[in-house]
Amino acid sequence: MLAPREGVPPVTADARALDEVVAAFAAGSGPVAVDAERASGYRYGQRAYLVQLRRAGAGTALIDPVACPDLSALGAVLAPEEWVLHAATQDLPCLRDIGMVPARLFDTELAARLAGFARVGLGVMVETVLGFSLEKGHSAVDWSSRPLPDPWLRYAALDVELLVDLRDALEADLERQGKLEWALEEFAAIAAAPPPPPRKDPWRRTSGVHKVRRRRQLAVVRELWEARDQIAQRRDLSPGKVLADAAIVAAAQAMPADTRALAALHGFGPRMGRRQLQLWQAAVDRARAMEEAELPQPAQAAAGPPPPRAWAEKDPEAAARLSAARAAVTSHAEALRLPQENLLAPDVVRRLCWEPPADQSPAAIGEALRTLGAREWQIAQTVPLLTKALAD
């Protein structure tokens, strides 16, 4: 399929055109295919730079959320309907930011996983299930560019062209396998999930920070990361385009005393101007001058059980429980043609095995799984085998 069946619609980029889209989609029928394009790697944050929709009776719409930043009227019209997205958790945050929040959804990627498909990318699924090959050559382009080139718009429109058809085929497949209720439960949980809280100490996610051991060096990472983040936000650039993570780690390890020493490090080469070098060196100097009490503490271990490799030494009985439980869950997942992590999250299995309920009855294990966030269908499928595994 080289182009949408009805052609590529014009981009909606003003209030009048948006009103027409809202009216058309309100008058349409059936599920609404929804997709969004971001500019990851180019711009700061994960905002949407194009929103694509398709619905029977309304056709396809391409909306520019830069020119039309408030889509809450469209979101309100579509809120009662089922939204069809592929990998919904990737797009829901940026859609929420512009006023579009579904009450019901169907995630074709997750549906494909539950149906037993090994490869679940949209292009592969459309080709495997529907027999159409879609062009996928523009997924990583800079969608913040304006005007958007015609080939990009054609690609974006094709992303929603067959999404409802794929949804219908996967729904039928899941129903044949007796898994449709499982999928609907998963979709409801995604739609009901609240926005994640802000990440604590986001600078600790700098790639390679595990190589930095000393607290003062960690302070350099923090100061450089925060300085970079401020610049990236102000200039609306991806932080990696301002300063690479590898450069931050190199500066933390070397603790350069001046800009000349800084310029000799990887990532601070001759192309970097003197003012930039001075800015980064100032961040290093701030860390060098900090009092001991101001330095960040080493990263604390995440709450919960220790890494499984340490279980045999720390608690051999827990290690035995984990081995039996993992084997049971993996075997059952294979029988159901499911990824093991979709049958039951590995972290849930670990936490259950590290601190099992004192009463290891099926009811108690089921309640423990529920407390750990397992869905009801997962509990029904895994309680019998986990009860036996823990007992053995």
UniProtKB/TrEMBL annotation:
It holds the Pfam family DNA_pol_A_exoN. It comes from the Bacteria. It comes from Streptomyces boetiae. Residues 290-312 are annotated as: Disordered. SUPFAM superfamilies: HRDC-like (SSF47819), Ribonuclease H-like (SSF53098). This is HRDC domain-containing protein. Residues 214-294 form the HRDC domain. Gene3D superfamilies: HRDC domain, Ribonuclease H-like superfamily/Ribonuclease H.
